Amino acid sequence: MENIITSKDNPTVKLYQKLSSSKKERLQYGLFVLEGLRITEDALRDGSVSHLLLTENAYNKTADGLLQADLRDTKVLVISNELGNRIASTDSTQGVFAICRIPSGKKPAFRDNGRYVVLYGLQDPGNVGMVIRTADALGIDGIILSGSCDLYSPKVIRSTMGSVFRMNISVINDTDALFALLEGNGVRSSAAVIDKDALKVTECSFTGRHAVFIGNEGNGLPADVAARCTRRVTIPMNGNINSLNAAMAAGILMWELKK
Fold it and tell me: Tell me: the pLDDT tens digits for 10-57?
């Protein structure tokens, strides 16, 4: 094995660390990072990888499989095990890292009877990643992030378990533009709220193109945003519980949306 990188000052290693820690750098370069074998395999199938970094140990264990992918647009680097531990964001790293290209200007793809989820103001990366993963499992047709945390932060990417490469995901932070897009494409909308007077989601029918809005973990949907939706829906709950974790609530809502 030749040209093993050992210096933390290597330009690609420094770029990886910048992208890992800074949304500003991710936006500036149009790149994001990920760590782990399975999600890197997903990224390679997607054609998103610009740089593949493997520790010596990872190269010996996984190169035969990973290097079978189409790597014409990918630069492969082997780094020392010590350097891999330095840039890792997990305690027990597999030594497989990638720098990926952020899709430019990705727009929702609306289809007949499509089912969509709008994550409005979600700030917990784990919740956002879990919703994306659950949406993938349930066959949701698309996700729109509006005013939520950075889709390409390492924590969100890791939580999606590769679903970020399989789902149609777009970011529309302008609320007026978001509603104009939905209305212009004949998408009805339901605001998920905590209100006993709202329609019980278990008793609702979802016809045609439909999107469910899910709000911030602590404050829910702003009242003015909920008012702009076609209707308001709620998850009926028993006992003294009046709220659920955002990702759990989203899972229930998406299940009903797809029934």
Answer: 999 999 999 999 999 999 999 999 999 999 999 999 999 999 999 999
Mark which of 101, 136, 170 sits at the end of a domain.
101
Domain count, the chain: 2
Q: Which residue has the tokens 């829906």?
A: 233
pLDDT digits (tens, 9 = 90+) for 131-154: 999 999 999 999 999 999 999 999
Supply the CATH number for residue 54's domain: 3.30.1330.30
Let me know whether 126 and 234 are in one domain: yes
Q: How many other β-carbons are positioned within 10 Å of the β-carbon of residue 203?
A: 9
Q: Residue 97: give the domain boundaries.
A: 11-101
Number of neighbours of residue 95 by Cβ within 10 angstroms: 25
Q: Could you tell me which of 117, 172, 118 has the C-alpha nearest to residue 139?
A: 117
Assess if residue 145 is contained within a domain. Answer: yes
Residue 120 belongs to some domain of the structure: yes
Distance, CA of 248 to CA of 250 (rounded, Å): 5
- Asked if residues 20 and 26 have their Cβ atoms less than 8 Å apart, the reply is no
| Residues 146 and 196 grouped into a single domain | yes
Confidence of residue 2 (pLDDT cuts 50, 70, 90): low
Instruction: Check whether 1 has a pLDDT greater than 60.
Output: no
CA distance 102 to 27: 9
Look up residue 185 and give its amino acid. Answer: N
Joined together, the tokens standing for residue 56 give: 């010596």
